[in-house]
Amino acid sequence: MQLGSFKPSIYLCSYVNIFHTSLTTSELLKISRKIMLKNKIHLAFLLSITLFTSAFADYISGQREYVNGNYENAISEWIPVAENGNARAQYNLGWMHANAKGTAQDFKVAIEWYKKSAELGNVNAQYNLANLYLRGQGAVQNDKLAFSWFIKAAEQGDAPAQYNLGRMYLLGKGDDKNILEARFWIKQALENNDAYIGALAQQVWDEYKLGSY
After folding, report:
1. What is the mean pLDDT of the chain?
2. DSSP state of 211
């Protein structure tokens, strides 16, 4: 069966949320004390808890500064946390640079931070990184790299990534055309809990008659 002439657009919107955490520093300290009392924590582990608590406090401080509109201060608080390998802080810094919050817009720096976070499994960073490669923002446009990060996010259940992956399979962008893979990922997006992406996926499903494969 020939594919129809309908060409669904790739969903280019990026995730825009800054990661928040619901635990307060005092709550984290209470949890840490309970763990120490129960398991008679050694001094070395106690030190690691202290360092973790300090990093957590810095992350919370950055979150507070962001909410108050003090974006430069938020970046300053998140940088040391991100440099210590915190995927959420890394994602936040990527987003801040991509969206010119507290700093000049710099997609190249955004890619650097998104990539660090994405490599640690952050699904939003994986999706945004794929979008930047797809658009050629901050790096040379690269369908293969976009595809590779979309598939990682899609495998974690991300609806926009699933939709984009299905569409890329339909068009042969980033990989060979594959109608069965396209059908699989469009179906995943269609059945995911995202009304807007579900509507886009339904349109592709109907126009390409994917139910007949």
Report:
1. 82
2. G
Rounded distance between C-alpha atoms, residue 38 and residue 24, angstroms:
21
Cβ distance 162 to 198 under 8 Å?
no
Give yes or no for a contact between 213 and 180, defined as CB atoms under 8 angstroms apart: yes
Q: Name the percent of the chain lying above pLDDT 70.
A: 74
Question: Could you give the CA distance from residue 211 to residue 123 in angstroms, rounded to a whole number?
Answer: 28
Q: Give 134-196 as a DSSP string.
A: HHTSSS---HHHHHHHHHHHHHTT-HHHHHHHHHHHHHTSSS---HHHHHHHHHHHHHSS-HH
pLDDT tens digits for range 67-112: 999 999 999 999 999 999 999 999 999 999 999 999 999 999 999 9
**CA 180 to chain CA centroid, nearest Å:** 26
Q: Give the other-Cβ count within 10 Å of 49's Cβ.
A: 18
From 3.40.50.1390, 3.30.1300.10, 1.25.40.10, 1.20.120.550, which CATH number describes the 19-122 domain? 1.25.40.10
At how many degrees (to 10) do helices 87-98 and 123-135 cross? 30
Q: What are the domain boundaries of the chain?
A: 19-122
Instruction: Round to whole Å and give the CA distance between 10 and 94.
Output: 22
- pTM over the 0.85 mark: no
> What pLDDT sits at residue 91?
94
For residue 48, pLDDT beyond 50: no
Residue 170 has pLDDT above 70, yes or no: yes
